[in-house]
Amino acid sequence: MPERKIIHLDMDAFYASVETLDDPSLKGKTVIVGGGQNRGVVSAASYEARKYGVHSAMPIMTAKKLCPHGIFLPVRMSRYKEISQRVFAIFLRFTPLVEPISLDEAFLDITASKHLSGSAEEIAGQIKKLVFAETGLTISAGVATCKLIAKIASDFQKPDGLTVVEPGKEQAFLAPLPISKLWGVGKATQKNLALLGVYTIGDLAKLPPDLMHKKFGKHGIHLYQCALGLDDREVTPEHDIKSVGHEETFTNDLTALEDIYRELLTLAVKVGRRIRRYELTGKTITLKVKYQDFTQITRSLTLAKATSDNQQIFKYAKELMKKTRAGAKPIRLLGISLSNLENIGTPEQIGLFSGKKEKEKRTRLHKAVDTIVDKFGPDRLVPAALIKSPDKGDKDDEENHL
Ligand SMILES: [Mg+2]
Q1: How far apart are CA 162 and CA 47, in angstroms?
Q2: Which of 10, 232, 265, 364 has the most CB atoms around it within 10 Å of its CB?
Q3: Dist. CA 218 → ligand 1 center (Å)
Q4: 3-29, pLDDT tens digit by residue?
């Protein structure tokens, strides 16, 4: 197998940078994007705001305490998506092997492209130049032989960074970095590793693997391999997506069942639309509920036949909701996702409908629905009595489950 060339690309403070692009008077200021009023979480913070300790996923209230003079702006998802599409179009000029991680982040496998467009470093440099020329925004890149190291490398010299880890230099690059840079090392693991005298990735690489296994089980072995820079996961393009979902953080916590179900319906419509756009169906439906106190639960069920139907997604999400203590505790976030995905056209899928005609009818109906959603947003399809449009944080949740 030829040595792989992988680039991880990540826009710098993406939402905040887009806001500054559209309003240059924000340049150099503490821009914080997210939530509405005092609710929701930070979606992005400019580098100036980060100096105050503000970071994404932090409650807006906390950000306001840390950075009282911050400029708080609402999320403008459609604008970010527009720019995201332009950025991804640039990636695709270099390789079809583009794995989106979020709107502003992707892995590219350019192993086969480099003969056409130059070395991996040159390709990463060209992408950076094109992104800046065509969007006015900066992106950071990491080049390595595997995803793990490419991702760490793109973060290494942010913003506007380009870091290349040459083949064979992986361990030397990782060794001085804190173990928190490794995926899957949370606060608890950090503490336990500190007890073993492990603070850097290099410290971890020196431990006997048996000890890691004894202390942390399978996860320990995985971390040990990461510390050695071993990661053979492939770059998986969009059609190999593992789950499709959507989640919302609400301006006001939900307590009334009718509000909860209304939001579930809105989510189901969004998830249905997205999964049909990918021409996929899903067998497993997962409901995620985060409460006011930030505790979180998920409930899943697997259907006999995969679906992409709004009403079915809603029906089962509602059933799952009934298995929680719905209404007992105020809810701040809801999410629905579909996994266990199948491509449309498999025999099981066609069997969903009584005949070919029926299937065509259904497809036409969904196409019409999706056009309306594209134009007016999903609220238009929710029965009028259920419509209320609170100002919400909006988070995309298209995961490839790293
Ligand atoms: Mg980013």
Answers
A1: 18
A2: 265
A3: 30
A4: 899 999 999 999 999 999 999 999 999
Give kind and range of the element (H or E) at residue 61.
helix 60-66
Please write the tens of the pLDDT for every residue from 308-325: 999 999 999 999 999 887
Nearest by Cα to 6 from 123, 178, 172? 123
Domains of the chain: 1-166 (3.30.70.270), 171-227 (1.10.150.20), 241-399 (3.30.1490.100)
CA of 102 to the centre of ligand 1 (A): 8
Report the sign of the C-alpha dihedral through residues 208, 214, 215, 217, in that order. Answer: positive
Radius of gyration in angstroms for the set of CA atoms belonging to the chain, rounded to a whole number: 22
From the candidates 19, 48, 105, 398, give the one annotated as an active-site residue.
105
As residues whose CB is below 5 A from the ion ligand 1, the structure lists: 10-11, 14, 104
Q: Report how far residue 298's alpha carbon sits from residue 276's, in angstroms, rounded to the nearest whole number.
A: 23
**Alpha carbon of 23 to ligand 1 centroid (Å):** 19
Tell me the whole-structure pTM to 2 decimals: 0.62
CA distance readout (Å), 189 to 183, 201, 223, 279: 11, 13, 10, 39
pLDDT digits (tens, 9 = 90+) for 319-362: 999 988 777 899 999 999 999 988 764 333 333 334 445 555 55
- The reported pLDDT for the residue numbered 37 is 57
279 catalytic per annotation: no
Distances (CA, A) of 259 to 330, 389, 391: 11, 11, 14
